[in-house]
Amino acid sequence: MYSSGWPAGAAEPRHGRGRELAQALSSVHGAPSQLASLSLAHCSSLKSRPELEHQASGTKDPCPEPQGPSLLMLRALQELDLTACSKLTDASLAKVLQFPQLRQLSLSLLPELTDNGLVVVARGCPSLEHLALSHCSRLSDKGWAQAASSWPRLQYLNLSSCSQLTEQTLDAIGQACRQLRVLDVAMCPGINMAAVRRFQAQLPQVSCVQSRFVGGADLTLTL
């Protein structure tokens, strides 16, 4: 299903760019309870309806109910790819990403995703095992300090090119995500090799730490 930030061998996305979004959502409208996997990667025009943004802001003014197909119908969804859906905001994700059974999620290349969005995703999707957040440059240690404890089942995590992260994020992940097996912190200038080695000592079951160009080094630790 996933094509960006996902382990080798994953299937290619089944749905295309912005003009195919309506067709993608309408195709699941007839049988939402059965759909387990959905890719909307690179749908650059994808955004929540104005009324969803309005509701997520906490205002008390009445809003009309959403009309037509919605991701919220897909209660059985286990895999979702929103890579490069660049118009999605924290408010969008807060209203839409409410999938307690979701196992795999890609939010890579979302320029508007901040620590607040990371925390609401953690609350709405607590069963994640695979998570890709590469090139989300607004994420910081503060967000991970709050979000990490929501993901005890996490096994694969891609944080490559998250430029604000430091070793504090590694500490938070190491304490909370005890089932982690693969971590990618490539191109994270705030994470040096000493921090990577401390993390590996903290979680010896991690089989691969991708850390290319971290702190000027080039290293992949594989056990």
UniProtKB/TrEMBL annotation:
InterPro entries: FBXL15_LRR, Leu-rich_rpt_Cys-con_subtyp, LRR_dom_sf. One of its GO terms (cellular component) is SCF ubiquitin ligase complex. Residues 74-198 form the F-box/LRR-repeat protein 15-like leucin rich repeat domain. SMART domains: LRR_CC. GO terms for biological process: SCF-dependent proteasomal ubiquitin-dependent protein catabolic process. It holds the Pfam family DUF7885. PANTHER family: F-BOX AND LEUCINE-RICH REPEAT PROTEIN 9 (PTHR13318:SF169), PARTNER OF PAIRED, ISOFORM B-RELATED (PTHR13318). This is LRRC29 isoform 3. It comes from Pongo abelii (Sumatran orangutan). The lineage of its organism: Eukaryota, Metazoa, Chordata, Craniata, Vertebrata.
